[in-house]
Amino acid sequence: MKFVATFKTGALASALLLAVAAGAQAGTGPAEISAHARALQAQAINLDTHLDTPALFSQPGWKISDRHAFKDDGSQIDYPRMVEGGLDGGFWVIYTGQGARDEAGNLKARDAGLARLAEIREMVAANAGTFELATTADDAARIKAAGKKSVYISMENAYPLEHDPSLLSFYYRQGLRMISLAHIGHNDFADSAGMGVAPEGEHGGLSEKGRALVAQANRLGIVLDQSHASNAVFDQMLELSRAPIILSHSGAYDVFAHSRNIDDARIRALAKKGGVIQVNSLGGYLIDTGATPEYRAERRKVYASFGDRHELTAEEREQAKAKLAELDAKYGIRKADFDDYMRHLLHIIEVAGWEHVGLGADWDGGGGVDGYEDITALPKVVQALLDAGYDDRQVSAILGGNTVRLIREVQALADPEAVKAALE
Question: Which CATH entry fits the domain spanning 3-289+334-423: 3.20.20.140, 3.40.50.800, 3.40.50.300, 3.90.25.10?
Answer without folding.
Answer: 3.20.20.140
